[in-house]
Write a structure and sequence with these properties.
- By secondary structure, the protein is of the alpha/beta class.
- 32% of the residues lie in helices and 26% in strands.
- It contains 3 helices and 6 strands; from the N terminus they run βαβαβαβββ.
- A 6-stranded mixed β-sheet has the order 2-1-3-4-6-5, sandwiched between helices.
- Helix 1 links the parallel strand 1 and strand 2.
- The longest helix has 14 residues.
- The two termini are 16 Å apart.
């Protein structure tokens, strides 16, 4: 199960549309806007990420820092976290795509 979090509501809508069009084997996920995630999906219901095997984030350094303790607490060991453009400070990526500025972590 994949959970994506993005701060741009327009991109959230595009990602949701793309997710619905994917093969059923890979479409079991959800894309949340950053404000919706924190307002009631994430902060008050942290279990929203608990069953995820992959979490993708496109936030900023400050929001990555705010999200980090929740991810560390709720995600199981071995869960992959992919951050677009902004690294997660204090985590060592297992892979970095410098051309596309993507950082992959395994908790």
């Amino acid at each position: 199960k994949t959970i994506g979090v993005d701060y741009d509501n327009r991109l959230v809508a595009i990602a949701r549309k793309n997710l619905r069009g994917m093969d059923a084997r890979v479409s079991h996920g959800n894309i949340l806007s950053e404000d919706r995630f924190w307002s009631h999906k994430g902060h008050n219901n942290p279990h929203v990420v608990r069953n995820a095997t992959v979490v993708t984030i496109y936030l900023g350094n400050g929001l990555n820092e705010a999200l980090k303790p929740l991810l560390e607490k709720e995600l199981e060991k071995g869960t992959r976290v992919v951050s677009n453009f902004f690294p997660v400070r204090g985590w060592d990526p297992i892979e970095t795509d410098r051309k596309n500025t993507v950082f992959m972590y395994v908790l």
